[in-house]
Amino acid sequence: MARRPQHPFAILDLDTLLDDEEKAIRDVVRQYVDDRIKPEVADWFEAGTIPAKELAKEMGELGLLGMHLEGYGCAGTSATAYGLACLELEAGDSGIRSLVSVQGSLAMYAIHAFGSEEQKQEWLPRMAAGEAIGCFGLTEPDFGSNPSGMRTVAKRDGDDWVLDGTKMWITNGTVADVAVVWARTDDGIRGFVVPTSTPGFTAREIHKKLSLRASVTAELILEGVRLPADAVLPGVTGLKGPLSCLNEARFGIAFGTIGAARDCLETAIDYTIAREQFDKPIAAFQLTQKKLADMAVELQKGYLLALHLGRIKDRHGIRPEQISVGKLNNAREALAIARECRNMLGGNGITLEYPIIRHMNNLESVYTYEGTNEMHTLVIGEALTAIPAYRG
To answer: Catalytic annotation on 276?
Structure first.
């Protein structure tokens, strides 16, 4: 009997590590991506546009927005289930996972963790349903890896707050209904819940991107944005607030990047089996099999790492350096897999007929955002030595 090719995850029987609920959630998201995202995402990528509001409502109906949060219309799933959803979403496109990640792990998480009860009631149910979209304003044009240097300021004027500043590289910025904006105050860095209809708030879409094209990326400009006293997030002061939100998002990236890499590898396997050169499939050549085997091993290791982090997070919480290990390794290895798979498709590898060049370009951004490779290296280095080297 002829042997059949095995799926990369089947070699180590990785499905046996998931419970029935986790597999059910994964399968629902995978089916949605197969039916809704994959048939259209190449066109969205080429056009540099995405039906973000439409997709948000669809994913809200599936319970994917803020799915790992409790109450307020959120699904309340495990962290591992959320990670598996991120994996399947990024197998469609990093931009789709970014939409969900920014909505749930940044904007919604900030309000859920640090907001007042009134802020939670006002925003979270609508955001969970996809009826309102959020964005997260931390990064500035001159301050990415060093958010403590931010120049956006919030000053008291009577009972009100007045915000001035600029934020850069903000996912969902021009389609958002609410922005969580971090600003310097006399008391330290504070977060503010800013309806995007507030006078003085402007969002400008960033064009001419060659990565994350199926995603909305914007610059936020705040010019005398006047907010009531209760716009501030009361539950946190200092960088602990935004950094804890970023850790939530980075956790999803540890899973998501594996989804993009898996889609690349699956495509390369199918292609090399079907493509013939010198009268046989190129998959029959030893060099080809070595490349596929090396990538399958790294893919499975990355999946096991992500899954281990999910179990840690669900069991007793997770430390920043543990998340840095996942983000650093999986973003790095996913990008390497995408590049190798692109090469294996030859000239066909650069066309949007296949997903690999799209994933490869997207992963260049994912490799950088939510903490660069270098910053996560230093987080791990500090954990190993107890010496912070960020300024050295």
So the answer is: no
Question: Do 271 and 367 belong together in one domain?
Answer: yes
Give the tokens for residue 328.
């650093």
Asked if 139 and 121 sit in the same domain, the reply is: no
Tokens of 145: 């890896």
Give how far the C-alpha of residue 177 lies from the chain's centroid of Cα atoms, to the nearest Å: 19
Of residues 70, 333, 370, 374, which has the active-site annotation?
370
Q: For residue 2, what pLDDT is reported?
A: 54
**pLDDT beyond 90 at 223:** yes
Tell me whether residue 18 is in a domain: yes
In this predicted model, which residue has the larger pLDDT, 154 or 143? 154
Cα separation, 315 vs 275, whole angstroms: 46
Provide the terminal-to-terminal Cα distance of the chain, rounded to the nearest Å. Answer: 62
The angle at the Cα of 147, spanning 200 to 102, to the nearest 5 degrees, equals 70
Q: Is the pLDDT of residue 149 over 90?
A: no
User: Quick check: is 2 in a domain?
Assistant: no
Q: What is the pLDDT, as a whole number, of residue 392? A: 58
Whole-structure pTM over 0.70, yes or no? Answer: yes
Which structural domain range is residue 262 located in? Answer: 240-385
Residue 3 inside a domain? The answer is no
pLDDT of residue 390: 81
- Among 152, 174, 178, which Cα is nearest to 165's? 152
Q: Domain for residue 354, yes or no?
A: yes
Whole-number Å distance between alpha carbons of 152 and 165: 4
Sign of CA dihedral 362, 365, 371, 376: positive
Q: Which of 128, 159, 191 corresponds to the end of one domain?
A: 128
Asked if residues 87 and 27 have their Cβ atoms less than 8 Å apart, the reply is no
Considering the domain architecture, whether residues 274 and 288 belong to the same structural domain is answered as yes
Q: How many CB atoms lie within 10 A of CB 355?
A: 23
Eight-state DSSP code of residue 188: E
Tokens of residue 355, six digits? 């997903």
Rounded Cα gap, residues 368 and 371, in angstroms: 6
87: which 2 tokens?
């994996």
For 46-66, write each residue's pLDDT tens digit. Answer: 999 999 999 999 999 999 999
